[in-house]
Specification:
alpha/beta; Hypothetical Protein Ychn, Chain: A; five-stranded parallel beta sheet; 36% helix
Length: 118
């Protein structure tokens, strides 16, 4: 079975964040599997449970958070990128985990397919 890892660097205000969520949902309902979600750069803001923005970006973040909470995929958030953007253990939404870049290296070495949403 083909496994996918998704790298999400698009922040909640970018269309790529919603496209990544739609792709993750589609993978869940397909013969393929999701090995890892990795949030990096502004993508870490999707895991910020207290995010409050204009223009619907917070709705995208809430949609991600609801899906992660409901389906429990491996949702890794780069700790370095998160701390730079004010995302800490205290503000991290349920189901997400702060990790180092080693988790992304693991996904790359796993041998599946990688898709980047920036």
């Amino acid at each position: 079975m083909t496994e996918f890892s998704l790298l999400v660097t698009a922040g909640p205000q970018r269309p790529g964040a919603l496209t990544a969520l739609r792709t993750a949902r589609a993978l869940q309902n397909s013969p393929y599997s999701l090995y890892r979600l990795f949030f990096y750069g502004d993508g870490v803001l999707l895991a910020h449970r207290l995010l409050n923005t204009d223009g619907g970006a917070d709705e995208t973040a809430r949609a991600w958070q609801q899906w992660v909470r409901d389906t429990a995929p491996p949702a890794s958030v780069c700790v370095g990128a998160a701390h730079k953007r004010g995302v800490t253990e205290a503000t991290l939404a349920g189901g997400f985990q702060l990790v180092g870049l080693g988790d992304w290296v693991d996904a790359l070495n796993h041998g599946g397919r990688v898709v980047h949403f920036g």
